[in-house]
Design brief:
about 190 residues; alpha/beta; Rossmann fold; 10 strands; binds zinc ion
């Protein structure tokens, strides 16, 4: 049976690269997938999933209003839904993906951040941690060599920022993926 997957990591752990690899693997075997990314993420231009290693692909944009049940419940001919920046999903959207997996046999693999720059769960991540059938942590390394688990927002001088909106409009905020100790000592 199909499952709902959540693969989370700190920033720059290669989530988009992994997603594009999964898409490639499906397509190489003659299966179709649909790719989504969040409208709020405009680091690389709207509607693209971009690997920092180079490859990029166009993706459909989801907003809080995107109705995944309406898009896919009636059948779609695809084998998997792939969602980047899944921390920006709404709770109801995660429930919809859960329903598609379990009632319509359509798996969804969601890639996203676990927490924001203040160490708080994103809405989509909280629901995915609650509902996903399989949860995997993708690991990346802090400058100090420990596993990076936190997303530290920094200013132009690389100093830690502790106040502000969860998502900075325009996507211009800078971040560093750091371990818990470096996050606290910053
Ligand atoms: Zn560290």
């Amino acid at each position: 049976m199909a499952k709902l997957y959540f693969r989370y990591a700190a920033m720059n752990a290669g989530k988009s690269t992994a997603l594009l690899q999964v898409a490639h693997n499906y397509e190489e075997r003659g299966h179709q997938v649909r790719l989504f990314t969040a409208l709020v993420d405009d680091r690389y231009g709207l509607g693209n999933i971009t690997s920092r290693l180079g490859p990029k692909r166009a993706a459909e944009l989801f907003t809080p209003e995107t109705d995944f049940l309406e898009l896919f419940a009636a059948g779609s001919g695809i084998s998997c839904i792939l969602i980047d920046e899944a921390q920006f999903l709404q709770k109801a959207q995660v429930w919809a993906l859960h329903e598609l997996a379990h009632m319509h046999n359509l798996p969804a693999i969601c890639y996203g951040l676990r927490t924001d720059f203040q160490g708080e769960l994103f809405t989509g991540s909280a629901s995915l941690l609650a509902l996903a059938d399989e949860i995997d942590e993708m690991k990346t390394i802090c400058d100090c060599g420990r596993k990076a688990t936190m997303n530290m927002r920094v200013d132009a001088n690389q100093r830690k920022v502790t106040e502000g909106a969860q998502v900075e409009i325009g996507g211009n905020a800078r971040y560093r993926a750091v371990c818990g100790r470096c996050f606290r000592q910053a």
